[in-house]
TrEMBL record:
Pathway: Porphyrin-containing compound metabolism; siroheme biosynthesis; sirohydrochlorin from precorrin-2: step 1/1; Cofactor biosynthesis; adenosylcobalamin biosynthesis; precorrin-2 from uroporphyrinogen III: step 1/1; Porphyrin-containing compound metabolism; siroheme biosynthesis; precorrin-2 from uroporphyrinogen III: step 1/1; Porphyrin-containing compound metabolism; siroheme biosynthesis; siroheme from sirohydrochlorin: step 1/1. Its EC number is 2.1.1.107, 1.3.1.76, 4.99.1.4. This is Siroheme synthase. It catalyses: uroporphyrinogen III + 2 S-adenosyl-L-methionine = precorrin-2 + 2 S-adenosyl-L-homocysteine + H(+); siroheme + 2 H(+) = sirohydrochlorin + Fe(2+); precorrin-2 + NAD(+) = sirohydrochlorin + NADH + 2 H(+). The keyword NADP does not apply. Gene3D superfamilies: Cobalt-precorrin-4 Transmethylase, Domain 1, Methyltransferase, Cobalt-precorrin-4 Transmethylase, Domain 2, NAD(P)-binding Rossmann-like Domain, Sirohaem synthase, dimerisation domain, Siroheme synthase, domain 2. Transmembrane segments: none annotated. GO terms for biological process: cobalamin biosynthetic process; methylation; siroheme biosynthetic process. One of its GO terms (molecular function) is sirohydrochlorin ferrochelatase activity. Residues 217-460 are annotated as: Uroporphyrinogen-III C-methyltransferase. SUPFAM superfamilies: NAD(P)-binding Rossmann-fold domains, Siroheme synthase middle domains-like, Tetrapyrrole methylase. The gene is cysG. The modification Phosphoserine is found at S128.
Amino acid sequence: MRYLPLAFDLRGRPCVIVGGGAIATRKARLLRKAEARLIVVAPEVGEELKGLVRESGGQLFQANYRAQFLDSAELVIAATSDSSVNAEVSRDAQARRLPVNAVDAPSLCTFTFPSIVERGSIAIGISSGGAAPVLARGIRAQMEALLSPRLGELAELAARFRDTVKQALPEPARKGFWEWVFSGPVAAEVEAGRAKEGERLLHAALAEPDTRSLNRGEVYLVGGGPGDPDLLTFRALRLMQRADVVLYDRLVSDQVLELVRRDAERIYVGKKKQFHSVPQDDINQRLVDLALEGKKVLRLKGGDPFIFGRGGEEIDKLADAGIPFQVVPGITAASGCASYAGIPLTHRDHAQSVRFITGHLKEGELHLPWRELASPAQTLVFYMGLTGLETICHQLAAHGLPASTPAALVEKGTTREQRVVVGDLDSLPRLAVEKAVEAPALTIVGGVVGLHKKLSWFEP
Ligand code: SAH
């Protein structure tokens, strides 16, 4: 390690920035986050930078740089566009034993700025020691994804209770208590956006020496998206990393499943058409039972849990049993398939509305409001519509849509095996058989399908 990351307390301390342009402003913003007092030296200074100096209670010198400007400095940044001025600033600062950073000139620096991941008072610096700044930025992006945006709130909560906990608990109990706070239900509540409940639990735990008895199970109902793991949300990924056990469907892709914490127990509860391998009631009950055992249960579903996903039924049971849960939306098949097939679901020239419809047959029949569906200028998206495809196309035409209305099937959308079959209401059922289209597949009907030819971009 060539560079040692240190955490400086700059609050109220005079920091000199030489330069008045965009880079100087960027550094000034950063120093202001640490509440530094800014002293800016430059013949010309932008408005934002002027404002930052003012609010910091600092000083602005609209002048050419001279060494005297460093007299009161505790930290120096050379951020002019003139490398000879930057070199002069660096020399002067080093002569005065002041830490100095010159923008884009490692040899003139006695310290560098790491890439920073910030969550309130939590700050993580990532430094490559100048070897590979782009790599450091990439690492930063990964950490941004993994750390809850509410980590700062958690740190604030801890700060507020610090003294109380200190008085109430001697070591080593205190350390154990804080570990429980940051890894248990308090953290989970805060991260789920329920800070009040988190605080209540923390209170309760202080009165209850055996915190283990407060460890409750909970359920995360998470949308795993249509297949491409890149389409997961940050929150989905975080909860997948935290789960003790995962119950997943057939529609959850292998690559998505791979992102679940390695040692989590995996339970397949998928249904196959005609084989209801695990009845819905059993799944609902199992979620309740596992949570009552104190487990963190991940219910991972394809697409979005609230769109043809029975998510509502599953959390209904949890609500009855008083088990905490949270719901994480996923990219639904319609959004995912449409994007990856280059078929905009709405378009000013073709469709002013879009409808998501289940094409699932009940006892071999489809009871749908065909007349409404056959109205013009809307896009229809049928989920589970492969078996009933012939009926769907026939009924839409019979109720007034022209047989030449464009229609497409997207098979295994967003995955490496994606196929898009395009035809019209007349030809699509035949094409589906010819090309042996398999589930999962989505049917899209409407003028927007005609745009696929030009707008398709994804090549699996
Ligand atoms: N909750 C899911 C939908 C479950 S219903 C969601 O929001 O996407 C199951 C149907 O979704 C399938 O029959 C199919 O029509 C559609 N589907 C799901 N994933 C798909 C994919 N990758 N490609 C095409 N269709 C998909």
